[in-house]
Amino acid sequence: MPVYLRKNMTFTPPSLENIADLDENDFEFIDPDKLKDQVPQPYRLVNKIVDSVVEKAWSFISDIENKKTANLNKIRAPKYDCAVKLQSHEKATALTDSVDGRYVFIGLPNGIVVIDSLTQETVSTWDEEKVDIAHIKCHLIGVQTYLLVTIDEMGIAKLFIFSSEQIFLLKILNEQEPGATKIISTKCESSEEGDYIGIVLENTSSNEIWLELHRLPRDTWLREMETVVAELKALSQQQEEEAAMAAESTEDNSQSPSGSPKPGTPPPLLTLTPGEKPNPKFTPPSLVLKIHPPQPITGSTSSSVMSACQKVDSGEVIGTGQHHIITSTHLEQRDSMFEQQHENMMKYLPAEDKQNEEIMQPTFHFVTSSRLTPVGLEQPSQTGRPTTVIVWWTGESNLRQYSLLKQSKDFDHKADIVWPFCSTITCSTTSSCGIYLAVGLRSGNVVLWDRYLGIEKGVIGVSSEYSIKQVQFLDPSISSEDMTDYPPYKTSSSAWLLIQTSDNSQYVYNTSLNTLVVLYTVNENNEEETVLSTVSGIPELLLVVTKDNSLLLKDVTNGQDVCELILPTSFDLTSPWEPIYSFGGGGQMLYVKGSSSSKDEEGAIIDESSLFVYQLRSFPSLDGYWKRPRNNDIKPVHSTVEQRVNALLKHRIAVQPQRKERLEKRWNMMQQELDIILQCQETAKKRTGFGHAYSYFDQPEENDN
């Protein structure tokens, strides 16, 4: 019988005991690129570097091409080049509009001009030689009475009042005496209704800077202004009567109506001579508070440990960290140890440039009282008026709160509250209602505080690479209304916050009553746009300036460009990143200053500037925004229990007819439901009786067996 026999293998693998040890020297590591290219090593390294440079350049070129393609495919906004050139005021240095949109105030190299915002007709002027207005701001303090805050090129801050088509000088805040040290003003801002004003002063010789807060006698100024206007009318009538009598009577020129005041009347504010301009004397402001920048933290100057411990706080509150027990010797030893440990790296540190060191500038906000106000500083009589100022200085991470109601001979007060933050503060803003406070940080976060409740509402993480450049609360009328648990308190999620980072990306956040919700990105990673302000009258639109000196109107709700404003040929914005502009007529007009330069026949450069006006009301692309309904009613906030109870009772009385109607409908429904229940009961009884009868007759008979 044949049997299949497997042939012997030609190669017999060795056993595990006979395997020779592997020598590491037998292996050779070969460069993978060497398999394709046998070029020596230095040239291979050069080849790799060239390839990386080409790849980076190609990616950069691809990004540029993609941006160009996106711009070509983008829907272009309509362009309007219908700017009207004003024949006067071409040397305007500053612009601002009145709050009600009636007038536009123009700062000139020799004074101030007031024009009608719609007709551009000159209403009033204030002239003074060598007064170049660099900054001007308007506040409404009465019925068609305006407070003007100005700073000229010499650093002099002045207050003006405009009423009845007359401009009067109220006060020079930093008036200089001959031969005294020059003190200039770098910033001057007032509260919305003109109750307080803050002025930043700087000593040019010592570079010392501080903030002064003054209380403005607004009500007194209004009464004095009424008296001045009445006296001006009386003087004009007197002059007219004198002129009429002089024309009628040529025989006796000496006869004229006596203008002596009646007995018992107060002395007039105006004492004019023929040909003299009216210059009334007004009540001066009063200094309330003086704030100096925070001093750098240094070692303790106490002579003993006991005295140092006595100066240190108990730690119950957060302070500025000035009082501690660390001596200056200890700090010097720490610095020397650090320099010794990192001696090889110290040479790479930038040298300190003390000459070009940036001077600290303050940012301040006037706010009303809230739950964050310390106990004892609340005054019910000051409801609706600012009672507190919030201050922070450039380069620091602490927010300080000062009371404006403290009565003391010493104007240098300590901060009532110190708010520390985890990063350097870059910007801040408050909402129009004064409830919310937003603080932008260098770390790319925005901290939102609810001042009315006295709690932190949340932290918005915007960017991890760029710092916050600007924060701004949008108008509440563009947001939807929310109904809370209590019907009388119909509120609006007014905290729509516009945030701009250092790379000019723009984001909008909705900080509603519940949580912080990210809405959308208006503009991301665009280094060519800077937000200037919202359009007065159309809060949905933003006025944006681009890198190529173009003005855009952008819709904040969807991030689309609505239209582009073009200046005439050869004209550009005077300063692209801080242009001189102003709205007028409630957003119907836009005033912009343009500049151009040309050369004459001899080659000399000729600079020309003009003031242009855009009639935004005539733009077809804005018709839908003008027709859009808006609710500008301010929702009341009840701060006391009595007001809350009265609001609930008033609401209950208002809905009484609706409640009565619901009760009648319910009673009718209850009658129908009762009939159904009775029918069901009768049916159930019948079924129960039939069941008993059936069970009685169907019982089995008992077995007799």
Automatic annotation (TrEMBL):
Q: Name one GO biological process term.
A: electron transport chain
Q: Which residue ranges have biased composition labelled Low complexity?
A: 236-248
Q: Where is this region: Disordered?
A: 236-283
- What is an example of a Pfam family matching this protein? WDR93
Q: Which InterPro entries match?
A: NADH_UbQ_FeS_4_mit-like, WD40_repeat_dom_sf, WDR93_beta-prop
Q: Which residues form a coiled coil?
A: none
Its recorded name reads WD repeat-containing protein 93
Organism (species): Patella caerulea (Rayed Mediterranean limpet)
Highest classification ranks of the organism: Eukaryota, Metazoa, Spiralia, Lophotrochozoa, Mollusca
